[in-house]
Amino acid sequence: MADIQGSYDDLFDAVPRALAGMLDAGDAGASVAVFVDGEPVVDVWGGFADADRTGPWQRDTITNVWSVTKTMTALCALILADRGELDPDAPVGRYWPEFAAAGKEKALVRHLLSHTAGLPDWDGPVEELYDWTSATARPAALAPQWEPGTAAGYHSLTQGFLVGEVVRRITGRSVGEFIAAEVAGPLGADFRIGLPAEHDHRVALAVPPPSRDEDYAASAPGDSSSATSATPIRLRDGNSVAWRRAQIPAASGFGNARSVALVQSVLACGGAVGGVRLLSRAGCDRAREEQFAGEDRRLGMPVRWGLGYGLFGGAFGWGGWGGSLVVIDPEGRMAVAYVTDQMCDPADDTRGMELVAAAYDGLKGLRA
Fold first, then answer.
1. Is the pTM of this model over 0.70?
2. Which is the catalytic residue, given 7, 31, 67, 211?
3. Are 21 and 27 in contact (CB under 8 A)?
4. N or C, fewer C-beta in 10 Å, the chain?
5. Active-site residue 225, yes or no?
6. How far are the Cα atoms of 54, 151, 215, 224, 231 from residue 123, in angstroms, in the given order?
7. Rg, Å, the chain Cα set
8. Residue 228 pLDDT class (50, 70, 90 cuts)
9. Residue 31 DSSP one-character state
10. What was the pLDDT predicted at 227?
11. CA–CA gap between residue 70 and residue 157 (Å, rounded)
């Protein structure tokens, strides 16, 4: 059996056993964390931090969590809304006047958070993602593909720039700066958007699925409505230095399961963790306000969107390309995060949900 490092409550032993099984089945490396009542009951890791399997995954190994980053960016918006600085029902143009062009005058902030703004596709060059001014000006100038609020289509890259620019217009700080000062810093969470070079030695680069290479590209399986002009994002892009340095608030967050679960525990615990309050309870509840339910035009499957999070029964959260995910359960006061460098094709990947199910088994025992 794979060697699993870290610590866990015996009631949750199914979680490290499940992780060991995944590593035994061929995964490179990963970390898993389960927080209940704001405290870690599972904090484990194992495997390797490189494709050649020469360097072990360490306690402080971090990796790109891809779209799990969206939950961090959404939290920034929720904090500003809770402070009264951001109104989700306001037109985006109130904060970002240039956005109110090409038929987007009535687009609301909540449309950006719920993937209903009609701007789902990044159609510029990959290099433009690394320049904030260009990356935000491009979608701001576009006409929406549908009337904002009337349909949903996963904004895989654009959502972060759209929400992030609203955050910047209000606070004068980038999303990465806001997270560092207002979220990760106060909580002591090892999570960053825009990774400084001093942390490069800790990064586990993404490993492609079996039989794939670094040209493996992200794809949206759905979109039966029309052909898209979206620029393919390849694994080699996400593994580049430019990607790490850039602030791509929908997809370039670097952390591990411990930091993701710690931050998102705030929403599981009524807004405060470890004596640090980021939100009121009402501010936490706002994340679960359903904005859309139905077929997502890009994902090609039924989805329920809250304010920045996917809704799953009484729980909410989101996953990233390749397998990482976070699930938040306010009723159980639990957050579960899985962060891996081993990518799998989405259609074949059940790893994250297996770990979440194992965490729920432990929670039942804890609450019994």
1. yes
2. 67
3. no
4. C
5. no
6. 37, 20, 18, 18, 5
7. 19
8. low
9. E
10. 54
11. 9
